[in-house]
Amino acid sequence: MRLVSAAALAATVAACQGTRGPAASGRSAPPPDLVIFGRVWTGDSARPWAAAVAIAGDTIAAVGDSAAVAALQGPATRVVSNGAAMVAPGFNDAHVHFGSGGFQLRSVDLRDAGTPAEFIARLKTYAATLKPGEWITGGDWDHERWTGSPLPRRDWIDSVTPNNPVFVNRLDGHMAVANSLALRLAHVTAATGDIAGGTIVRDPDGTPTGILKDNAQDLVYAVMPDPSAEQRDSAIARATAWAASKGVTGVSAVSVGWGELAAMKRAYRNGTLHTRISAYVPLEQWRRMADTLKADGPGDQFLRVAGVKGFVDGSLGSRTALFYEPYSDDPSTSGLLVTPEDSLRRWIGGADSAGLQVVVHAIGEKANGLVLDIYDSVAKAHGARDRRFRIEHAQHLRPADAPRLARQGVVASMQPYHAIDDGRWAEKRVGPARIRNMYIFRTLLDNHTHLAFGSDWTVAPIDPLLGIYAAVTRRTLDDKNPGGWIPEEKISVDEALRAYTAGDAYAAFGEGVRGVLRPGMKADIVVLDQDLTTIRPEDIRNAKVRMTVVGGKVVYAAD
């Protein structure tokens, strides 16, 4: 990528000829502030390719062939040349844990710890940097990387963390391990009763091992100190900078607490927020959300208080995703219903009656079937409107349920990276038959379902290029499926790009503002170092972001 002076513009135009669209018209408007040349994928089906895009203020002023757009430029116009590499609408991420991501960037990283010994060593090293009494959280460990896949235990880490309470989660967030100090602070003992919608993993004598699943995690979360406002502000600053470096210009932030939302609002007011955010607070707090919107309004398309997010079940990796049949590798369980059905029906109905957008986490087949049933009954009871119910993950769908999403107008908010991660070990969880119903991107698109892609950061990296790679190749992370894991569910690069741009915008009621490069839309743009449509699909994971523009401002530049 080069910044091009006005004197060099003629040479730039000659070098950047691309697929030509209609000429940009007129010189009556002021010259654009920024012009970007390259192979422009617009996301607009009526005009999919162009060679240049011009930006005035925070808005796209023109999209067209290079000569016509160059003619609009003035002496103060900043000009960027990207040669024959791709320029695209800014990526959106339909499912992130934004504040948590910011905190994790400063916490211990256990994601790629390849053995229990490495897991322990990293915690020891990190604990040495803290003061006594400071909590160690985050982590994002993955026991499926370890031979035999043992779950971590409190006694693994007690000796290396004697002065710091530890509660580090598996990367899916649906189980975590506590050391003995954290368990004592939370009063979790052999006498602690079972938790509805959760599991305290125990030794044969009833002593907790340190592993707490789903709702049982709340026992420890309840005794953790809340972050200060300054800590939250720092986490949001780290998160928005990291997102920009990955070409992410907008997100749906889910399970947002009120303290986190306040930090987002402070960043927006201070001009330090560089990511468009649609925020979803916990479903059970729908009344407070409705009152907040009534008093303060939803905000705008930069920071929008969007709706509420609920949970039906847990995760496949934690064996808490809810299925109709037991797990193949643990017939004693078919998963957990983490929110009682009557509560789900009551809360979803109340939120919908208040006009809130409802998004619900569902992973197992039974969980997805249940939420589709509830959505259907609520929509019928309350009458037709543009509500855009969403299922977050929609990971396992029975064949009979796949067409229901399109028929009911439900958005499938999915995370393609999970497919190439879970695909390494999913068959041992649910067997060869049920894996055919996992991450069925092709099937959903063929049924005309609204598909929105995201990462579930920090569960997976907030990197849309990795997500596009996953959706297009379905090569598992261990590279043991070079032709693709369940290859019939692959989709094209164009389809994956749409799911990360216009699809996500639609999922958050932002389709009139972002997701497509068209005059009048907000100038959210990503500049890449390659053209994803011309390189080998398996090379997409090696592509890099050169520049990210949000609302006409360059918020990241690799150079």
Question: What does this protein look like?
Answer:
The protein has 559 residues and is of the alpha/beta class. The protein folds into three domains: 1-90 and 514-559, Urease, subunit C, domain 1 (Roll); 100-221, Diaminopimelate Epimerase, Chain A, domain 1, CATH 3.10.310; 229-507, Alpha-Beta Barrel (TIM Barrel). 30% of the residues lie in helices and 23% in strands. The chain is built from 19 helices and 22 strands. Strands 1, 2, 3, 4, 5, 20, 21 and 22 form an eight-stranded mixed β-sheet that branches. Strand 2 (34-41) and strand 3 (49-56) form a beta hairpin. The protein is globular. The N and C termini lie close together (8 Å). The model is unreliable at 1-27 (pLDDT under 50).
